[in-house]
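Problem 12. The chain below contains 192 residues. Write out its predicted structure in token notation.
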Amino acid sequence: MAMTSPAPRRSDATRAAILAAARDRFAADGYERATIRAIAKDAGIDPSMVMRYYGNKEGLFAAASEFDLRLPDVAAIPPGDIGAVLVAHFLDRWEEDETLTALLRVGVTNPAGSERMQTIFKRQLAPIAAALCPDPEPGRATDRAVLVASQILGMAVSRYVLCFPPAVAMPREEVVAWLGPTVQRYLTAAAP
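Solution.
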């Protein structure tokens, strides 16, 4: 007898609709202007359902901004290519998923968004920096992760949020060629 997976519950579909609507609304309006009522309308449900599942706007934002950077396994990358691979990966992530761009927009204007971005980068980028850091001193890997984030987020703000024409027009390969060596140095070079 073949096992079949159970049909998704209605609550799962409702939660998914709420999160999709919230991501879109936060991306379009920012954290301050996005409302539970507008998000519920976009999801095609009553606002009380949003409150039932997520409690308040902060809870909804936290759930909607869960984001997996899907960082590559640096152990599988040739050591001299890590910077370039990471920069190309981040460009892919920014271009594939508006959620990360929305998070960045909210992060620069709202403390909750800023905290969310910090958490994502701390949990996901810091372990890579720790794995590659040649410094035995405590805290040095964190310093390196912050430097990498400054490059990645700086380009993301310039290219995807503020849309500076030269940043938008620059071919990906050129972005990788400029930023890859810098990210590589931040992660693997001896401390100055």
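Discussion. The chain has a mean pLDDT of 88. Students who got a different answer should revisit the alignment rule from Section 12.3.
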